[in-house]
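User: I'm writing a tutorial on reading structure tokens. Could you give me a worked example: one chain, its sequence, then its tokens, then a sentence or two explaining what the tokens reveal?
Assistant: Sure. Here is the example chain.
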Amino acid sequence: SIDGLRDSVLAAALAAACAAPAGAGDFAVELPAGLRAGAAGLSGKAPAAAAAALPVFDPGVSPAVKEQMARDLDFVSSIRAAEASRLHREVFGPVAGPAYVRWFASRVKAVGFDAGDDGPTTIAYVLTRKQPWKMWVTRNFVGYAMPQIARVMFMFHEARHTETDRGNWHHAVCPDPFRDEGGREVRGILSGMPMAGKAVCDRVALGSYGSSVVMLKNISKFCSNCAGKARFDAGLYADDQLKRIIDDSARREIKDDLYR
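And here are its predicted structure tokens:
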């Protein structure tokens, strides 16, 4: 249940309370249609209950979304590993559930549901100028048949966008044409939509895409209690997200950390 999961995640977060916060976390950066008209009226103040381990859910968030996010965070809280790469330690600390939960909970204070966005590309987003502490999800969050590690990736990607002290890690426009190192057109791994010319790339190593690569690749390589499929999926999605790092030096930094 949500209440039981909240207790377990809170316990994990408290166990990591002595760790220093990691540095201050989108699938699509355009403001989804369902919020264009009403964004001006949004409050810029985080909810009073923001200290809870799980975020505060808006009334419009369905039980399915709540339960799925709770299960995903429960999985995250269980992760254990004896090793962590240099970049992972820089962003998240150890490859450990309590550290991940604390990192996420310190950034995402609330979750809303955008019922007006029924497009194929948006999974989640953050309105960085209005509510940088809040993550919005669409029906694709539970509508796509994606592995659990993919939803975790999107959640932590958006958490990186909440970091106002780092300019919310704004994305760069992908090249057009946009091809990977093998010459294949880069498309969304779930939507299949081409990414060329869209602001869904990064030129830095540790923005939302790069930090997701670092997290997932470390889980793939080092998680000692993850199922084989979870580790495989983590590696698969990490490799896909690495394509979004379009600066050669930034991509090389990640490869030197995790792909050698």
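What the tokens reveal: The two ends are 41 Å apart (CA to CA). The longest helix spans residues 63-78.
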